[in-house]
Design brief:
Layout (H helix, E strand, L loop, with lengths): L13 H13 L2 H4 L7 E10 L2 E4 L9 E4 L1 E7 L7 E5 L1 E3 L5 E4 L5 E3 L4 E6 L10 E13 L3 E10 L2 E8 L1 E4 L2
Antiparallel strand pairs: 1-10, 1-13, 2-3, 4-9, 4-11, 5-8, 5-10, 6-7, 6-10, 11-12
Length: 172
């Protein structure tokens, strides 16, 4: 088990410190690792994108506070010997309306390589229910890629960062 250190110079409430310790010690690191995935020649992977996060209380206007986040989507080829091709990356808003295809022409991702897609902080068209439906393929069965989205906002006073993971929803 790893040691937990909480920087006392950072202003955290007692409840926040307790939560940090509970989260860090509740699940052993080995329990987080995924098992071997069966080889595949391609998939469509749904990736939740939170380009906007609602928080706080509902105000007199009937709305909550919103924070816009930038999102780095990472398609990581986990196969040690075979490239994959990302053939499309349609990006949808929370109503399921296509905003754009971030990969208009197929991109080859070499063994252990990574393809990155980026949603800018200033882009608010996706909303809290945005998503990618990333389609990839390979010439032979391969270890499926890991597809994650790192959501972040860094500014003086506070920072937010979290990851959402993609989930295969279909195979060709």
């Amino acid at each position: 088990m790893s040691a937990i250190r909480i920087d006392s110079s950072f202003p955290l409430t007692a409840a926040a410190r307790l939560l940090a310790v509970m989260l860090a010690t509740a699940v052993p690191a080995t329990a987080i690792a995924e098992g071997n995935q069966p080889a595949s020649r391609g998939q469509t992977v749904y990736v939740p994108i939170y380009s906007e996060v609602r928080h706080g209380n509902v105000g007199s206007s009937g709305r909550t506070d919103n924070t816009l986040l930038s999102v780095l989507v990472s398609v990581r080829n986990t196969d040690p010997s075979t490239p994959i091709r990302v053939v499309a990356a349609p990006y949808y808003n929370g109503d399921g309306v296509l905003i754009r295809n971030s990969v208009p022409t197929p991109k080859v991702v070499p063994p252990f390589g990574t393809l990155e897609l980026f949603v800018e902080h200033r882009e608010n068209t996706g909303g809290s229910g945005a998503n990618y439906a990333i389609r990839w393929e390979a010439a032979a069965p391969v270890s499926p890629p890991i597809i994650e989205a790192l959501h972040s906002k860094f500014q003086a006073g506070y920072s937010v960062a979290f990851i959402s993971r993609g989930r295969a929803i279909s195979e060709p």
